[in-house]
């Protein structure tokens, strides 16, 4: 029987990996967040990130952003969105240690950065050598996020409507939560 999420032995040696669109901010189906004006935090996310900062040693965002490769926005646009996102997170008492973005088109991803490939996880490990993937959790809202977590040897947490997954994708999911806020409530309960 699987250990309940709230009973995992999470401490300050653990790392949290987060997808961005659909986990931290509103996801536009068949489109991209191309400017800060289009970026909207999901309900409870800023509180969740504040609480999660007390639990995890590192919080890392890993995001596929093919809109740059498609020419729908520039790398500078993406960097501006992330700078503003980090400013808001810090303002509310949270923290994100790094953001890794795979911006190449899927067919041009020769560095294998795009999830489900583990290039962004490997970048994080190079930048933060203390990261242990067996003591890491990947939170995402897609099968690609779950496969990325499994490929890297992490615990996976799916947020959102699990009915969006196909039956063969369910085996990639270790835990389900309604949202990042729900995940934070469960994990924070470990500490209270």
Would you kindly provide a written description of the structure presented here, covering whatever features stand out?
The structure is a single chain. The protein has a single domain (16-191), classed as Rossmann fold, CATH 3.40.50. Helix 1 links the parallel strand 1 (15-18) and strand 2 (58-64). The radius of gyration is 16 Å and the shape is globular. The protein has a six-stranded parallel beta sheet with strand order 3-2-1-4-5-6. It is an alpha/beta fold and 192 residues long. The chain is built from six helices and six strands, in the order E-H-E-H-H-E-H-E-H-E-E-H. The mean pLDDT is 93. The longest helix has 17 residues, at 75-91. Helices cover 32% and strands 15% of the residues. The two termini are 24 Å apart.
What is this structure's SSE topology?
Elements: E1 15-18, H1 45-53, E2 58-64, H2 66-69, H3 75-91, E3 98-102, H4 119-127, E4 136-140, H5 143-152, E5 155-159, E6 175-177, H6 180-191
Parallel strand pairs: 1-2, 1-4, 2-3, 4-5, 5-6
Structural class: alpha/beta
Q: Please report the distance between the alpha carbons of the first and last residues.
A: 24 Å
> Which residues form runs of ≥5 with pLDDT under 50?
none
The biggest sheet, with number of strands, parallel, antiparallel or mixed sense and barrel status, is: 6 strands, parallel
CATH architecture: 3-Layer(aba) Sandwich
How many domains is the backbone divided into?
A: 1
How large is the share of residues in beta strands? Answer: 15-25%
What's the average pLDDT?
93
Order of helices and strands: EHEHHEHEHEEH
């Amino acid at each position: 029987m699987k250990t309940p999420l709230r009973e995992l032995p999470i401490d300050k040696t653990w790392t949290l990996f987060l997808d961005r669109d659909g986990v931290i901010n509103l996801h536009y189906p068949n489109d991209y967040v191309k400017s800060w004006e289009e970026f909207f935090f999901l309900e409870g996310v800023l509180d969740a990130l504040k609480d999660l900062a007390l639990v995890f040693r590192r919080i890392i965002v890993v995001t596929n952003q093919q809109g740059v490769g498609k020419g729908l926005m520039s790398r500078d646009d993406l960097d501006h969105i992330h700078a503003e996102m980090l400013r808001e997170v810090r303002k509310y008492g949270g923290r994100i240690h790094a953001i890794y973005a795979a911006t190449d088109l899927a067919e041009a991803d020769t560095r294998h950065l795009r999830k489900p490939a583990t290039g962004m996880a490997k970048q994080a490990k190079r930048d933060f050598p203390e990261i242990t993937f067996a003591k890491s959790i990947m939170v995402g809202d897609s099968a690609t996020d779950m496969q990325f977590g499994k490929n890297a040897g992490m615990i996976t947490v799916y947020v959102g409507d699990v009915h969006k997954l196909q039956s063969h994708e369910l085996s990639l999911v270790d835990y389900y939560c309604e949202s990042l806020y729900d995940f934070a409530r469960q994990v924070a309960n470990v500490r209270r």
